Amino acid sequence: MDNPIMVGPTDSYPLPCERILPDWPCVTERYFEPRFYAPKLTKRVPIECHIGHQCVLFHSNRIGVVTLAHNHPLLTNDSPVEKLDFQVKDNTNRLDNKVSGKWKKGGQRVDQNSQLCIATCKDGTSYAIFACMRGTLIEINEKLFTDPNILRQKPWSEGYIAIIFPLVKSFKTEKESLMSWTDYKKFLDESEPKNNEITESDS
């Protein structure tokens, strides 16, 4: 089989992806709608942490796959990821999340600004990574435990961060609370934050 071909981002689809054939869309392109989130620095974020824009890939079955935006500093900087810390509070570790049954009961509840983990790079820089939406945490990607740098290498496939299940009644609301690719391009053109980071603080 031929080696995969990297395509994108394009005007119609914002994320680079691996295609087997140049004109044949990859799985992510065919089945997931990307939406974007630009978090703000708040008191909930550790003072030593930076932030960057993120992306949620929405599937038709109503799950949201939390990833990084293509311009997140973790992807644009050269320093590899050395550690992911899922102990986001003294009493909250995302790795302790457990769900059961068809409706995934028992999972941790999250909102847009809930931290999923803190990624620390080899150069010592740390980034807070957020849930980006309200819902129930279904899973943290287990591949990140043994290979945290897959977050940089394959962020929109094997290196996804987490899967979140919004309440059925609020799926549309949660999706529309995030920016479409068209709106996100406009947002970037108007704001042009340095290194794609937001530096505002909550009052």
TrEMBL record:
UniProt similarity note: Belongs to the ABITRAM family.
Protein name as annotated: Protein Abitram
Any GO CC annotation of this UniProt entry: nucleus
Ranges annotated as spanning the membrane: none
Pfam assignment, any one: GCV_H
